[in-house]
Amino acid sequence: MAAAVVASCVGIMGLGSWRRQLKGNAEYLLAKNLLTAVYELREAISNARHPYLELAGEADLPKEKLSELSWREKHWFALGEAYQKRWAPVAAAKAKIDANLLEAEVVWGQQIRSKATPLDELIGELYYATKDHLEAKNPNLRVNNEELRAAQTRRKIMYSRSDPEKDEYRKRLGDVIADIEDELKPHIVQHHR
Fold this sequence. Notes:
By secondary structure, the chain is mainly alpha-helical.
């Protein structure tokens, strides 16, 4: 009888230990996946902001449409396609973050989502700077002096600078990522083997 009671106690303690380990493994994987997605976003944004932009040549338009366009219009369409290619990895990384954030919010609550909200603002800033830049380059539109001044501000967002200390956008992105790291790394370190 005593052996059965001891075996039951050991079994219950083992079950509790197993549950804690399972929970820890789930939190570790969630934190690791979310932080990996944040780093992927950082790299995608870095690539999207690279100052050198290579155009593939002519825009991917039907031949009859291409024949109707001037050289400047063809160049503008090709420029738009080049920026779309740069933007695709940013959108993919953001989608991955959003999927992981849903699960993280269930596990850790609303605070993790609030840490990631500034990423949305920075991505939006980059997106609209790029969009406005493309609109200003449209050969069929006239650009006024105010738009020319705005172009300088857009370039500071759109293109990374060789000196990180002078790159405000990169610093702000780094601060947001550091804040997310501070929230997630304890979950990784605590359960990392």
